[in-house]
Amino acid sequence: MNHLQPPQPKRLDEKLAEIRADPTGSNAFILADAKDADMAFGCLAPGRRRDGSLKSRPELLDAIRAVSEQGLIDLMLMSASSVERLVIEEGLFRESAVTPAGRINDSTDIWVVRGGRYTGEPSHPFRTATLDHLKHGRLVEDASLPGPGVDLGLYSITPTGDLEADVRTLEAFAQFRVEAEQKRFRYFLEVFNPNVASTPAIDDVGAFVNDFIARTLAGVTSAGRPQFLKVAYNGPRALEELVAYDPSLVVGVLGGSAGTTRDAFQLLADARRHGARVALFGRKINSAEDQLAFVEHLRQIADGGAEPADAVRSYHARIKTLGLAPNRPLDDDLQVTEQSLCYGR
Q1: What CATH number should be reported for the domain holding residue 200?
Q2: Residue 184 domain boundaries
Q3: What sign results for the dihedral spanned by CA atoms 209, 76, 244, 215?
Q4: What is the pTM of this model?
């Protein structure tokens, strides 16, 4: 089936409007699932089965269907090939309050392939997908017209402190913004922490990233600005500084690597407490014993209905009733561990 998505309101749009109308008073919180890892990890993206074997792409698509149909997330991020299959061909989101989105670019710092060393080099801008294909599934004469695909996507940049690398990154970002405005394509902006050590070393990564974001967007008018930001959680001071700097920017955090269940729940609670209004989890959901139960507990924390430690205990009780063995004992899963903020680790 090939359906044009009707211009019906989506929960994401409603929440963004509410947050912008009252940045300090709104309790709205946007929860997103990132199932676009096939553009980074290749065959490893769907995760592993209990016996250690790799899951398949059909299993990844089934997981996208299940989490989307559950309806507790506000946004589902996918690769262009998944957008074609699920949005354009199946019309999965046609009657859903969940907004589908596509990963627009795949810079080299997310090329986490077995045997590769790309993540150890300064990030280079690169795009596999095109806006035409994300929006229409093919090249068209006028991509500004509505299409059966998505009109929202994630654009990612990774500042490194290396002048030449960062100039290339921002030149590519500027070219993308022009195309996006011409083709009426919305985006949210992901800003990773540096994926390599700079010379001289950056003493305060949070301050560096905040300044990089602020000075970059200072040259961008409202027509080309992102719907919201997605950044690494660099602690309460850095997050509060970014949130306070420009109340018109909706700031969100990225989930990072898998870690313990407490890592995920604590990150969400801390980010929410210090001003974030969006959280996008990928590997933490994908590696869960039961993705739907995990998302249900994320939603409770995002809406202020549960504390992290209690949510971990509740989650373990739930997977026990489902007859699933936990990935780690409860006492271990209640621990907060140090998480790397680089994509490939």
Answers
A1: 3.20.20.70
A2: 30-333
A3: positive
A4: 0.94
